[in-house]
Amino acid sequence: MSAATYGRIVGAPRSRRSFGQWLIYAFLIIISLIWLVPLAWALATSLKPDAETTVAPVSWRATKETLQAYSTVFGNGQILRWWFNSVLTASLITCGTIFTASLAAFAFSRMHFRGSEALQWLVLAGLIIPFQALIVPLFQEIDSFGLADSYWGIILPQIAAPIAVLIFKRSFDSLPGELEESALIDGASPWRIYWQIWMPLSRSTIAAVGIFTFVLAWNNFIWPFVSTSSADLMTIPVGLATVNAGYGALYAQQMALAILGALPLLVAFLLFQRQIIQGIANTGLKG
Q: Radius of gyration over alpha carbons of the chain, in Å?
C-alpha cells in the first residue's frame, strides 16, 4: 500500500468528523440566532418613540432611536426597588436551598437511620406535586405565622427544593467513602465532615444548584404575586405585570422594563457560564 493511499484511508474519518462538527456548529448558530430574535426585537422596540411601536408595516429600525423609554422607566417606575427586592429574595432563597438541600442529601447519602428510605421517597414525591397546587395551603400557613406580605413570606416557601436534594445526594454518593472514614478516625464530627470535606469537594454541584435556583427564584411570578400586596415588595416579574396598568399600551416602556429586568441574569450568565456548563456536566442535569 502506497503512502498516499494510506494517508487517504487514515485521513478519511478525520474529514468526516470535521464535516459533522461543522454541521453541528452551523445548527447551533442557527438555533442561537433564532433564540436571539425576541431579545433583539425587544431591544429595537425599546429604542423607538412610542408613536412608532404600533405603525404598520412593522420595522426593526426607528426613524430616530431614542432612550426616552428608559428615561421614563427610571423616572416614573420603581425598577430600582424591584431590582433590590429580586436580588435580596433570590439570593436568600439560593443560599437557603443550598444549605438545606445539601444537609438533607448528606444525611441520606452518608448517615444510615431508620426511615431513611421512606423519607427519600417522600422527597421524590415532592417532584410530582406542582407548586401551583400548594399555593392556597402555603399562603394559609404563612398568614397564620404573620409572614404574609413580607420578605420572609416570599423566601421561606421557595427554599424547599426536592430536585436540589437529589442532585446533592448524587454528588455525595460519588465521593470516596475513604475520606469520611479517615476523618472519623481523626475524630471529626459529622458536621465537620459535611462542612470541611463534602462541601468543598462539591463546588461544581453548588454552582449548578445555586445558579439554577437563583434564576428560578428571579423569574418566579406566581408566589411573590400571591404572597404580597405591598408595592414596596414587588419583584421584577410582579412589577412587569403592572406595566399595563401603570403605563398603558406603551410598548417601548414595556420592552425597556423587560430588558432591564433580564439584564442581571444575562450578566450573571456571562460571568458564570463556565460554572454553569461544568455543573450541568457533573450533576447530570442534562437531558
A: 25
